[in-house]
Amino acid sequence: MTTLTNVLVSFLTVVTGFLIARLLVPEARGIFTSITIWPPIFAALCSLGIHEASNYFVGIYPDSSKKTKLIGASFWVGICLSAIGILVFYPILRFLVTDRLGDQYVNAQLYLLFIPIFILGSTLLNSDLGLQNYTRYNLTRFLQTICYTAAVIFLYFNHQADLSVLTLVTLLTAAVPIMFLVPCHFRSIFQRTTIQDVKLVLQKGYSFMGGVFLSILAVSIDRLLSVSFYDFADVGLFQVAVSLVFGAMSLIGLTYQILVFPLATQISDKSERVVYVANQVQSASLILFAAAIFLSVLAKPLVTLLFGEPYAGAAIIVVYLSWGYALMSVKTIASRSIRSFSEGKIGFIAEAVYVVGLLVSFFWTYSLGWRTNSALCFSVFVGGITSVVYFWISLRIKYELNLKEVFHPVNSIRFMYAFLTQK
How many other CB atoms are there within 10 angstroms of residue 44's CB atom? Predict the structure, then answer.
């Protein structure tokens, strides 16, 4: 069911991406990206990893009343952190985007409300993951996506290209998980929360915070550089390529990211857990590279068909970006999965290696005068390959993993099939 949901969500993500692109010219698309790019980074910082903690605790205490107390504690801690985050990051956002966005700065201010929406929504969603309530988890994700798609379709057919309206619609539909899941977790949320529960949530969340923040930063760093160094038209072309490539990669990538962590926590023997995670990362790699080949071959007709002639320049970006995003997805799956055996260091460093590798490559090429979207794609590839190599070397050294067994083609295909047929 999770795989089917990811197929539908990825498909609808691409649909909304090309509708927004057709609704807006490349420059306006670039402005909208600039409006929405910063608050998710702020949200990851001020969440302190509590949404990951809720997933972890529910998986650890599946049959205990303790889990309901910790879900409630995570929710109320999230409200407090959200309020603090808005107060702290409001002046920072003003400093970052006022001059660049001009009159559109008010929309960037409005989008700061994404901070509580992200923290509370992801906390409740991750609680369902820990409970292995995949039906409700997938239904929530699909409901949110279908609401956003319906809203964008309405705007498209009414020729409503106002960025203020689009920003508000994006916020409201992002809040769907909260509206849907609060009644489902009502008893957990509104039971008595103790100081000990709050401390436990914060302590465990803090242990995940570095990896969580870096993983979100890693997903956004290429677009952050784009909005900071390129004009809005180039940003629009890059964002269109990202929406197509990320939609395709997330079809498989998100399935692995969502399921491997909670499933691995159920394996009691740590050595078996390590082998399980390694095999799943390898099988994911096969599918992601196959997707990269597919996108590279069909980039030009896909971009023209979906986004229109004004975005034809995004086709070559899709070709280059596919390989970097395939590697980035492998890295993200690996970093998230190894948290299942309380391994934060390797995942944290893998994310850091990706970000540092990308930044070093970008500024090196930028200093040489290579200041195009293809240079940014090259930097994504460099960051991806260095982080994946680091991950496998570290896993081999620390856990004495036999890489010859992990990289066995037949075993990889078998694990891939078994995983994708997991409900």
Answer: 25
